[in-house]
Protein: LacI family DNA-binding transcriptional regulator
Amino acid sequence: MRGRRPRLGARGPTVADVARLAGVSPMTVSRVINTETSVLPATRDKVRTAIATLGYVPNLAARSLAGGQQCRIALLHANPSAAYLSEFLMGSLAQASLIDAQLIVEQCDPLEPYQALVGRLSGHRVDAVLLPPPLCDDPALLAALEAAGLPVAQIATGRPAAFAHALTIDDEEAAHRMTTHLIGRGHRRIGFITGAANQTVSAARRAGYDRALADAGLPHDPRLVAQGDFTYRSGLLAATALLACVPRPTAIFASNDDMAAAAVAVAHRGHLDVPADLSVCGFDDSAMSRTIWPEITTVHQPIADMARQATALLAGTVRERSAAREASVRHVRVAFTIRHRASDGPPPLD
Amino acid sequence: MRGRRPRLGARGPTVADVARLAGVSPMTVSRVINTETSVLPATRDKVRTAIATLGYVPNLAARSLAGGQQCRIALLHANPSAAYLSEFLMGSLAQASLIDAQLIVEQCDPLEPYQALVGRLSGHRVDAVLLPPPLCDDPALLAALEAAGLPVAQIATGRPAAFAHALTIDDEEAAHRMTTHLIGRGHRRIGFITGAANQTVSAARRAGYDRALADAGLPHDPRLVAQGDFTYRSGLLAATALLACVPRPTAIFASNDDMAAAAVAVAHRGHLDVPADLSVCGFDDSAMSRTIWPEITTVHQPIADMARQATALLAGTVRERSAAREASVRHVRVAFTIRHRASDGPPPLD
DNA sequence: CTGAAAGCGCTTACAG
DNA sequence: CTGAAAGCGCTTACAG
Structure:
């Protein structure tokens, strides 16, 4: 049983190799890798030199087997915007790889009962769930997840659940700032296109618009608010209605970029120049805002970063002792910025 | 050393548990899981029952540690289209999780020298590389990857390298079929917007357009071909030029959807109805084609499926004995379909 | 067709 | 601050 053939495949150096070269035990190498403090600087440096010399890279499989640190996070999505999903994925994927968590991406079928979905997640040994919009606002899904005892992170919700982590920007404040920016440019008649009624951020954005108008002492004309649902098509209808008002608004602030792009299209169709005859602003800083021409001034949400933080929070919760879990729920507000581009300017002189 | 405390964390059932319940050895359980043939049906069923009873799910970490089947695949991307990336990711992620490969997503900085990039990949223990457009067409990158001995899969290239796997649709044929479709509708003056000159699919799509015209015996008017580079902006310029021709084309076929969307915008700006006054077709079936209104008739590429297949091919190559690698390179052509939507119709009567 | 032994590369839980 | 031992859950390479 001794002269057994070595297993196939040249593998890289291991902790044992590093330990030998550095003249320490594998345990000490492990400590250095995991940046524990209780290692003498001299020892640490020897180990680091050996790691660099050998080009050692830890074996993730072995690490998670030994550490018992398995962590599978499901990303449940039903967002029609591929751009949003892709940016979200980049953030959560990077973080997952960093902390050695496994990310499971699951497209949510709206027809599947939530009980079945949650059952499937447990079957896949999912430890936690990432919930980007619009699922983050689904009460039935949240209830099912809470009942299953799964840690959850809601991203971009206007109404964080008590049991879940939440990562949001201040949508109300962002809309307020964008509207105030337009007012500062000289606009007095600013049209607003709302988001979908079933997403909590829609109301927040609308509230920011209302407050900015009030702060500036501008009259509130209900004809200047048109209902949208975040789709381009709804933006077309809403912008058409807004531009039919007399007198015409000199600016339109849409609750997302797809609808802002639609407003630009309607303006062009009516031979209005953007921004000379009409300023248009959007929300989200999605691909659409940079694709069309002119490029749209919009509110930038750090989607990738929010995904990254949400993933880190979930992994922390999973690896925590279960007792303290409820106490550690975090509602984090991240900073937004306004991206000034080419679609806004002063109102026409008329 | 005996009464040692068990490790923390309730773990699920293991092969040992299944083996005990089924009255077989762990080895046999492993065989059943890996669907080896040399297990008696009766034994297999006992094991399967035990698996179902216990709700056993294999531990991936242990499996890859023991099996030595580590496989890290890098997805190198520089594609400006988030929609493309996101769909690509869905496919490769699903396959990677299925075959227990690790996917590393790496944004390519065009300023970084390729030698450094390839060096970094080796440092991360990357075993293979997925190359979607436009990187799939970069000769310097391909050369560096080949020199490093890394298996590569090119996706959607018009010119597959001899050493690499390639997954493509027949772009020439797809463009031919779309053009022929327009001709079948009655169009005789069909404008064409080309793709970027440095991507190999651009020439293929152009060739398909040319061939369809020739097949139908239509004259080849060089003014009906406008140079684009796949951006919306270039589509705006190209469509403006095409619509200035006298007589005006009754249809425009753009080499991607962003440019087709731009053509729709230019038409609307000129008060032309789409499709009553002008038919517009695109290529790729990207999010843009379904976002704008009217929705665009386009060529559907199964991007997720191509990514899935490419990932599977690479994993196969990595796990192969190195000797046979070169012999196993595969150039696969997958089927495309035409998605008929609302942007095309017969030419106007006059 | 089935099984006993060894080992994958790392970390936990102790002990000193 | 450092190390020797055991074990994570599975598969490989044999042997029967």
